């Protein structure tokens, strides 16, 4: 009988500790996303946003953080195609290009008729281009530069490499063309 009270105290403590990890998971800050960063710049080009260097630093932190307890709501989305063998762009250069495209927002980014590929921006080692489907050669394809930048952000989120480079492609939201970063 004299052990009953200490055993009850241990059980009460064990139950309290078992609840604590749930509180930690709920308190986590949302992870950084290049896609959301580009979306925010496109929505308000004159607003306060992370610089390309700050966004890249936040991207590094997000890529190395232990998110094993979190469920990524985008985990079921179609992923960008990452190109491990193609010439990658240096991530700082790619992020600078993305910021520019997002800042010009609703301006049209077009692949003209009779053209298969159009370069939208070059920054250092990075080239952001768009490619139409092979059977659409005589048709101009247009999307906003904001959507092109948001698509680039998605590529950065999914294809950003540990060696601080990126190479990948993804269709724009309206399916006008494929965006490429290399």
UniProtKB/TrEMBL annotation:
Top-rank taxon, per record? Eukaryota
Keyword terms: Signal
Signal peptide coordinates: 1-16
Q: State the name under which the record lists this protein.
A: Uncharacterized protein
């Amino acid at each position: 009988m004299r052990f009953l009270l200490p055993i009850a105290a241990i059980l009460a403590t064990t139950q309290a500790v078992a609840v604590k990890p749930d509180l930690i998971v709920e308190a986590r800050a949302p992870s950084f996303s290049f896609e959301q960063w580009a979306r925010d710049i496109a929505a308000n080009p004159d607003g306060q946003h992370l610089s390309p260097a700050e966004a890249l630093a936040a991207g590094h932190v997000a890529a190395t953080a232990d998110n094993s307890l979190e469920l990524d709501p985008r985990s079921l989305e179609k992923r960008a195609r990452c190109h491990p063998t193609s010439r990658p762009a240096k991530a700082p250069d790619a992020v600078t290009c993305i910021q520019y495209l997002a800042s010009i927002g609703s301006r049209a980014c077009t692949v003209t008729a009779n053209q298969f590929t159009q370069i939208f921006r070059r920054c250092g080692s990075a080239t952001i281009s768009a490619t139409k489907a092979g059977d659409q050669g005589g048709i101009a394809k247009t999307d906003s530069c904001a959507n092109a930048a948001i698509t680039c952000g998605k590529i950065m989120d999914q294809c950003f490499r540990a060696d601080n480079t990126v190479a990948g492609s993804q269709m724009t939201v309206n399916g006008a063309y494929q965006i490429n970063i290399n």
